[in-house]
Amino acid sequence: MKVLLAVDHSEYSDAAIDEVSARPWPARTTVRVLSVVEPLPPPAAELWYDGRGSLDLAHKELRQRAEEFVKRIVARLKKKRLKVEAAVRDGHPRTAIVDEARKWHADLIVLGSHGRTGLKRLLLGSVAASVVGHAPCSVEVVRLKRGKKH
Question: Which of 17, 77, 126, 139 is 20 to 30 A removed from 2 (C-alpha atoms)?
Answer without folding.
Answer: 126
